[in-house]
Amino acid sequence: MAGTSNMFAQERKNLILETLQQKKRVTIAELTDLLQVSGTTVRAYLTELEQQHKLLRTHGGAMWIDAGYGTEETMDARQGKDLPQKQAIARLAVQELNAKETIFLDTGTTCVQIAEELLYRKIPMTAVTNDVRVALTLQKSNVLQVVMLGGTLRNAYECTLGAGMIEEMERYYFDTALIAANGVSAEYGISTPHPETAQAKRAALKQAKRSIVVVDHTKLEKVTATKFADIHDVDEILTDPEASEQLLAQYQQQGIRIRKGE
User: Fold this and answer.
1) Does the keyword Amino-acid biosynthesis apply (predicted)?
2) Which residues contact 128 (CB under 8 A, 6 or more apart)?
3) What is the pLDDT of residue 80?
């Protein structure tokens, strides 16, 4: 690119981020050619940008982070998005559950759809949640026992978080924990934008005999700011019918159990 050799350092770093946002992954060789600087300089830029949580370093390059700290959409903004896909995940997830279990149902719109499916199926069980909409949905049932965990209410996301919520959660053991995520990556693990949300998800996984991550296909091979589990730390990943068969095959070759709904 003409003129890149005369760029200031900040302009080069901005160009790195613009390129990453478009391509999602870049190599040091590509950036060296683009910026017309040495590999040592590129590595220094990548290290600085990683420290600012703007990208993730990979072997020989970098990867785009799709969401930074505090950039989660509100529940209202997410509620209507990809609804058929989330309903397909919900049907598959409920098939995994048995009567009389104690489950943890995480926060988020996919988990609200799982709550709707549980309501429809009328499976008697105990459901523990920190999500207000999940609890309000489940409380309509006459066969479900619903536990709403207390804590600090995050108004925009309609869930409880914080030390009080985790302390209360630790009183329970779950047969199954259904956990939502904003990013699932074979290399970088399972992630969410907000550190406090990640802490809650880690606590739920710790209390569960079996863990299932529920994500629509747009979250696969994405990375957000805060990792809460390695991909092999969970028992299964459930996604929607639009997930790439090629990507699912790659996961399965690595010993990752992943299925998609219909």
Assistant:
1) no
2) 102, 103, 104, 105, 147, 149, 169, 172, 174
3) 54
